[in-house]
User: Fold this.
Amino acid sequence: MKLFQLTLRTLLVRKAWVVALFCVGLLPFLLPILVPSEFALGLIEPARAQAAWVLLWLVTTFWLFGQAARQGDQNVKSGLGTYFHSMGLGSVRQLCQVWLAHAVILVPLVLLAILVCCLGAAPDENVGSWILTNLQYGVLFLVVTLPLMMLATALGSRFGTLIGYLVTVGITFYGLYGVGYLEVATKVESNGLIRLVYAISPQYHLADLTEQLVFQMGALKFTLFLNILVYLGGLSLITSASSFLAHRTTAKA
Assistant:
């Protein structure tokens, strides 16, 4: 696990994780109080929950995906990938260890967002349902972001930091927001191509339960949650398999 330890130490030494902790752990308490008090009655807690999860999405997408792509690129350019390969650590194992180091950073951030929502934004009633909603959100969030983080590392190793980062961010935001516009297009026009593209598009927006929290709609029913989990789990397997194929450890494919 030497590559895992080296990657994790690199992430910790860069100190950017302090900013991530501040964004997810403290900003949700600071941002809502900027709203004038006469408009904030009863809105502080939902706004706090919304801020916690939105900031987590932003930190993960704009920071961790970038770090993952950068690490994949640097391992190839510095010869570190070649060195570990010569030590018997294959491409898949190297990718898994780099990914695991980033996962060690991401999982505590998810737990922190859940903690912020449970301690600082929970309603007076139906607390159990509120906690369950946050736990469901955390599980779905990880099922989506962990494989995408692996993809960023793999694409970074093959095409460089910028391409690996931009492609991964593009896929993420397309799955979160772009498919919504595509869904509207399928209802307006009966175009077979548009319907096909929509059908094969990643529906990452299913993992976004922010609305459930803001409007206190309660936890997802178990059957619905399980269906979403199975679907997103299938996408994660496809993304992970693609990452294994795309990742490389040397400068030449």
